[in-house]
TrEMBL record:
GO terms for molecular function: alpha-L-arabinofuranosidase activity. It comes from Pelagicoccus albus. The keyword ATP-binding does not apply. This is non-reducing end alpha-L-arabinofuranosidase. Keywords: Carbohydrate metabolism, Glycosidase, Hydrolase.
Length: 487
């Protein structure tokens, strides 16, 4: 591996490490919130502490699909006056609107994060959406700021990021891109700048490789869009039959998931190329607003709650995906893994009062030093991992340099059988020393944390790196991720 410290791919925005909390399963209720002795929902301190340790650059809410079913007026005012509705999409459970705008913004304040609020285009009206925006942001005298004050909040929240619908091609309204582009123009016209807050308007983007969606929406509405929201999930199977198992998989399942995760590179390349036609200055962000692994939900868990375990395999698909984002920094500026707590590729799982950090949490932790650092260009040739009659590059990487001049190298060996030795040379830099080195690995491909053994799989000190003849020599065990800090 040759690193060129003079050549950069750009700054790694913290926003690429964003999160997502939908009213789905146990993400909100019994996730970020729990019931106290009086039966009222309160924010979980343990969950907030764990997430703050990781750092949450942004949090997307209230969906997902739920966003296009959500009427924000149901979630304000005295709790006893809030209507209950049916969460038709996710398990058919009763949503009593205990967590609404004020509660979500309290969580945002506790996490010290930035909100991304997604409005309802699918079943709501322009007036609804414009009123919500005014409720969130109007600093002076207005009908909605008056209502906000009556509900206990004088100051506006200054929400900047606003989604104009979600998956409008599917659960958000089954629209054609031509129709959505027109609706987008109409809805977003009524999101006005208030005080210092100018809306950053996020349009529904494509599903996976629906390049026509990107083409049509960019062509017809690109001039009014600030970010376009691509969704791509990694499955070992298919949407229509079986998505694949979270824990009980064989090496074929390991290989296929790695391959699907790597497909993100092709998606970002192709969608970016289309965006370049309409926005050569790269003003519009390509946002990966939903990504992560999606397995069959855990047996015995509530249908429609999308609760799944998380193994070393998930952790390495996450590091490979983050590496890919770092190769597309000129266009890809924000991403949200789905979803933070108890849903899909979660950071945290809870069981009553118990909670655990998943292996994916630890990937995000190992990648923390890269945030807001400069991504350095490199060339890497570390052999191939063969499986299922195909091959994949065995090692994936990110190299970055932070403001203090410290370089961090992250290397993922996706091969579950073979160790790899990577020799890293840094063009033009002579004296570097290893300052830190941590590894995430395990004997089993499906190693994971459980409520009885919450720290079974955590990063440990890594002894397999040294300098020899001016090169950093890294002995990467099979199926491992390491991050090494150099100065
Ligand atoms: O994250 C789960 C669901 O996946 C979201 O609600 C939706 O946007 C996507 O299809």
């Amino acid at each position: 591996m040759t690193v060129n410290p003079e050549e950069s791919n750009g700054t790694i925005s913290s926003h690429l490490y964003g999160h997502f909390a939908e009213h789905l399963g146990r993400g909100i209720y019994d996730g970020f919130w729990k019931k106290d002795a009086a039966g009222d929902y309160i924010i979980r301190d343990d969950v907030v502490a764990a997430m703050k340790e990781l750092g949450v650059p942004n949090l997307r809410w209230p969906g997902g699909c739920f966003a296009d079913y959500y009427f924000w007026e149901h979630g304000i005012g005295p709790k006893e006056d809030r209507p209950s509705v049916v969460n038709n999409l996710w398990g058919g459970v009763t949503e009593d609107n205990s967590v609404g705008t004020h509660e979500f913004m309290d969580l945002v304040a506790e996490l010290e994060t930035e909100p991304i609020v997604v409005g309802n285009v699918g079943s709501g009206t322009v007036e609804d959406m414009a009123n919500w925006w005014q409720y969130l942001n109007h600093p002076g005298e207005s009908p909605m700021s008056k209502l906000r004050a009556e509900n206990g909040r004088e100051e506006p929240w200054n929400v900047h990021f606003f989604g104009v619908g979600n998956e409008s091609w599917g659960c958000g309204g089954s629209m054609r891109p031509e129709y959505y582009a027109d609706l987008y123009r109409r809805f977003s016209t009524f999101l006005h700048a208030y005080g210092d807050v100018k809306p950053f308007r996020i349009a529904t983007g494509p599903a996976e490789d629906d390049y026509n969606w990107t083409e049509v929406v960019m062509e017809r509405a690109g001039d009014m869009i600030d970010g376009i929201d691509l969704h791509y999930y990694t499955l070992d199977g298919s949407w229509s039959t079986h998505k694949g198992q979270a824990v009980n998989f064989d090496e074929g399942g390991w290989f296929r998931l790695m391959k699907r995760a790597m497909f993100m590179d092709e998606l970002l390349t192709n969608h970016s190329a289309i965006m370049d036609e309409y926005d050569p200055e790269k003003r519009v962000w390509l946002i990966v607003g939903e990504w992560g692994t999606w397995h069959e939900q855990e047996e015995g868990s509530h249908p429609g709650f999308l609760y799944q375990q998380n193994t070393l395999r998930d952790a390495l698909t996450a590091s490979v995906t983050l590496d890919i984002f770092h190769q597309h920094l000129d266009r890809v500026k924000m991403a949200n893994i789905a979803q933070t707590i108890n849903v899909l590729q979660a950071m945290i799982l809870t069981d009553g009062e118990r909670m655990l950090r998943t292996p994916t949490y630890h990937t995000f932790d190992l990648y923390k030093p890269h945030r807001e650092a400069t991504a350095l260009a490199f060339e890497l040739e570390a052999g191939e991992y063969a499986g299922e009659g195909e091959t994949l590059p065995a090692v994936s990487a990110t190299v970055s340099k932070n403001e203090e001049g410290r370089i961090h190298v992250s290397l993922t060996n996706i091969d579950p059988n073979e160790a790899r030795t990577v020799e890293v040379s840094f063009d033009g830099i002579k004296k570097l020393k290893i300052k830190s080195a941590r590894i995430l690995t395990a004997e089993e491909m499906n190693a994971r944390n459980t409520f009885d053994a919450p720290d079974a799989l955590v990063p440990t000190e890594f002894e397999g790196a040294k300098f020899a003849k001016g090169k950093l020599v890294v002995s990467l065990p099979a199926k491992s991720l390491v991050t090494i800090g150099l100065e």
